[in-house]
Structure formats: structure tokens, C-alpha cells
From TrEMBL:
Protein name, entry field: Protein-L-isoaspartate O-methyltransferase domain-containing protein 1
Ranges that cross the membrane: none
UniProtKB keywords: Cytoplasm, Lipoprotein, Membrane, Myristate
Species lineage: Eukaryota, Metazoa, Chordata, Craniata, Vertebrata
Subcellular location: Cytoplasm; Membrane
Length: 435
């Protein structure tokens, strides 16, 4: 299944194609897809096919097509603090992307039939945490994988806010999947060649919506032959409370990330329970105060005036050119144009020189500086002025922006390394990452 969009040269190119084809429609899903390189979940010999919109299978390892994962991520309607269960978690690619959205106060569990695939998923997860440049830009809910058949989950298991099943579900097992879902939760799974979104609206009420025509291999059922042992039930990972040490690490990293202006979780201001006010919501008292009626007799306050920032040109050197004892290179007087023009620099230089002479009690004509042809060419290369405006100003600003972007990549690590803490504690705050 796949082939709905053009192949990309790299991960970003693939995501651009998925956005253009409207498979990726929200910013959160886009950020998660860009943060995790799909090629990292391929074996090295098959990485050339990673950015095609095609499914890939090698032995027990399997990845669905990018367009399928895009529709699944959009259909799950993820947000911070939710609990997520991945039935048939495979390589962990989808679970890792979900972990970037649900955040550190969410729950992220996966069940996979094959033990070798679970080991592969754990290796890829460790590699992402230790080596990915994207890890420090997000608050992450690390997925926990267990080995077992998702049709044998223990009856006393807790329910989840979001569930995805990565194998074809027969009608006989539809209700079994629904029981694992909390009221208000969303389940996405393929049923009868249709990727279906099911929302639990009540204790016994559901709403279904077909998302996309798909083709999935069916769920593997354990043999029920006579005399065969009953398969062991799958115990899902417990939902545990984070330790105080772990909470401290989360909030220290969050604070440093916001102080540094980096990261993609700036709009995820959630409390410990993960269900705090959203980015556009306000405290009730603030909302009430804003909605309170104001007397009509009072005119509205004037809008705040923006303070104009004056450009400082004191660092620029200006040389006046002469060809003799008193003849200037520009004998015509120029109007005052400010610091963005030659005339402005002349007047500022003359004023500064006059003030210096007054302080020293000196009198006389303005001293000029004679420059050679080489110095004049160097000066013209440094600052080119055309019609009173500087050429290359936009180019210099772009260069500064690129440098700032490069600095931003490691700003959290630099901030942690600068803290007056023992090296062992710094390593813990960095999740023992070496990059």
C-alpha cells in the first residue's frame, strides 16, 4: 500500500510531498514527522527506499507507507498528556512520533508479537534518544514495548485515550478493541480494507468514520487446537508516577529551553497531570476580567506607542578624502541623511571631532585623513552605499540568522553544561547524550 505521493530525496522532501498532498494537515503532526528520520528505521542496505511512499518489509520487520502513518497520526487527534496504545508496534517509528506529541506526562505503550522486532525497536529508540538532533527540541514520552499477542491482552488492563492497531482487524475482534478505549477516546484501525476512526461517545455508544482505503495483513491468532496450552495473557506495562528526580529533570530542561528560545514545545504549557489549559486558554479569573463590561463614558485607552530604536553608527569609521591641502573630495554640501548615508556619517564625524577640540580647548580647521587607493577599495568593499542605503544589509542579516540557527541547535546542551553542577548530574540532565 502506498505510492500516493512522489518519492523524496530526504526526509524533509518526503514530508513536503505529504503536506502538498494533504496527508499531513496539522503543525504538530508535521513537526513530529520532521523530527524523526524515517530512514533511521530501515536497515542500511535498504535505506535508499526509505523516502518513497511505499511499505517496507524484511523478515518480521515492517513499516507502513508514509501516507498511511500520516492519516493515522491525523486521525488520532493527539495532544499532550494523553495515553496511547500501539497494537502491533513494530519498529517503534510511529510510537516515537506519538511520544513527541503526548509529552512527558502522557503514556506510550506498544505490544508486538515478535521478540526480535521488539529488540529492534528498543535499539532504534535508544539511538534516537542518544544521537538525534531533534531530541532536545521536544518534551518526550518514551515508549515502552512488550512482547505478546494483542488479542490476548489481560482483561483487567487499564483503558487508553488513543489506540492504533497496525494489522487488519476482523469484525469478530472489533468489540474486543473497543473495550480497551476510554470514553471520549479515539481508536484507529483497518477494518475490511478501510482505515477507520472510531470515537467512543458513551459507555455503549460509538461513532465510526472511514478515513482511507487500505490493505493490511490480518492479525495473527493463536492456535486453539485441542490439547494445546492456553496462550499466556499479555500484561501491559503499568502506568507509574514519575520520580521526583525525573520530574526535576523535565522542568529544568523545560525552563532552560524556554530561556534559550529553542524547542518545538513552546505552546505546550501543561501541568503535571498533562491536562492543563491549552495555549489559547486563559485562567478563569483572567477571562472574567477581560469579559467584564467597561463604562461607556470612558474612552478606550490609546494604543501603546512603539519606541523607535536609533541605529548606532559609532562603530563605523569614516575617512574624508583630500587631494591637496584644503580641497575636499566632495565639495558639494549634502543634506543631513542620518546614519544610513555618507552625509550622516560626515556630520557625525565632524560633530565628534568638534566636541573633542572644545574639550581640549583647541581651535582650527577640521583635520582630515588621507587614504590610499588600496584603503579606499577596502572601505568600499566593507560598506557599499547606493542612493543613501547600504547594499548587502539584507545579506548580512541572513548570515546572522543562519549563524543563530546553528547556535540554536545546541543551545540547551550549552546551557546545561554551563550550570554549576557536578558532571554526573549534567550527564543525567542530558539523558547521557554525547552530542
Amino acid at each position: 500500500m502506498g505510492g500516493a505521493v512522489s518519492a523524496g530525496e530526504d526526509n524533509d522532501d518526503l514530508i513536503d510531498n505529504l503536506k502538498e498532498a494533504q496527508y499531513i494537515r496539522t503543525d504538530r503532526v508535521e513537526r513530529a514527522f520532521r523530527a524523526i528520520d524515517r530512514g533511521d528505521y530501515y536497515l542500511d542496505d535498504y535505506r535508499d527506499n526509505a523516502y518513497k511512499d511505499l511499505a517496507w518489509k524484511h523478515g518480521n520487520i515492517h513499516l507502513s507507507a508514509p501516507c498511511i502513518y500520516s492519516e493515522v497520526m491525523e486521525g488520532l487527534r493527539l495532544r499532550p498528556g494523553l495515553s496511547f496504545l500501539n497494537l502491533g508496534s513494530g519498529t517503534g517509528y510511529l510510537s516515537t512520533m506519538v511520544g513527541l506529541i503526548v509529552g512527558p506526562f502522557g503514556v506510550n505503550h506498544g505490544v508486538e508479537l515478535h521478540k526480535d522486532v521488539v529488540e529492534y525497536a528498543r535499539e532504534k529508540l535508544e539511538d534516537f534518544i542518544k544521537n538525534s538532533d531533534s531530541f532536545d527540541k521536544f518534551e518526550f514520552c518514551e515508549p515502552v514495548f512488550v512482547v505478546g499477542n494483542c488479542l490476548e491482552i489481560s482483561a483487567d488492563s487499564h483503558q487508553y485515550d488513543r489506540i492504533y492497531c497496525g494489522a487488519g482487524v476482523q469484525k469478530d475482534h472489533e468489540n474486543y478493541m473497543k473495550v480497551l478505549l476510554q470514553i471520549g477516546g479515539v481508536l484507529v484501525m483497518p477494518i475490511e480494507d478501510q482505515l477507520t476512526q472510531i470515537t467512543r461517545t458513551g459507555q455503549c455508544t460509538w461513532e465510526s468514520k472511514n478515513i482511507l482505503a487500505v490493505s493490511f495483513a490480518p492479525l495473527v491468532q493463536q492456535s486453539r487446537a485441542d490439547g494445546a496450552n492456553k496462550p499466556d495473557s499479555v500484561r501491559l506495562p503499568p502506568v507509574s508516577v514519575r520520580s521526583l528526580q525525573d520530574l526535576s529533570r523535565i522542568y529544568i530542561r523545560r525552563t532552560l529551553r524556554r530561556l534559550g528560545g529553542g524547542g518545538d514545545d513552546d505552546d505546550w504549557d501543561w501541568g503535571i497531570d498533562g491536562r492543563g489549559p491549552g495555549p489559547t486558554q486563559r485562567h478563569p479569573a483572567t477571562t472574567a476580567a477581560a469579559a467584564a463590561p467597561t463604562p461607556q463614558t470612558l474612552p478606550p485607552p490609546p494604543p501603546p506607542q512603539k519606541r523607535k530604536r536609533r541605529r548606532r553608527c559609532s562603530r563605523r569609521r569614516f575617512n574624508a578624502y583630500v587631494f591637496g591641502d584644503s580641497q575636499l573630495i566632495n565639495p558639494k554640501p549634502q543634506a543631513k541623511l542620518g546614519c544610513g548615508s555618507i552625509g550622516g556619517w560626515e556630520e557625525e564625524a565632524e560633530e565628534a571631532e568638534a566636541e573633542g577640540r572644545e574639550e581640549r580647548g583647541e581651535e582650527g580647521e577640521t583635520t582630515t585623513t588621507t587614504t590610499t587607493v588600496e584603503e579606499e577599495e577596502e572601505e568600499e568593499e566593507e560598506v557599499m552605499v547606493v542612493g543613501g542605503e547600504e547594499e548587502g544589509e539584507g545579506e548580512r542579516e541572513r548570515d546572522m540568522a543562519e549563524v543563530e540557527t546553528l547556535k540554536q541547535a545546541n543551545v540547551l546542551r550549552d546551557q546545561i553544561m554551563a550550570l554549576p553542577l557536578p558532571e554526573s548530574l549534567k550527564a543525567y540532565l542530558l539523558y547521557y547524550r554525547e552530542k
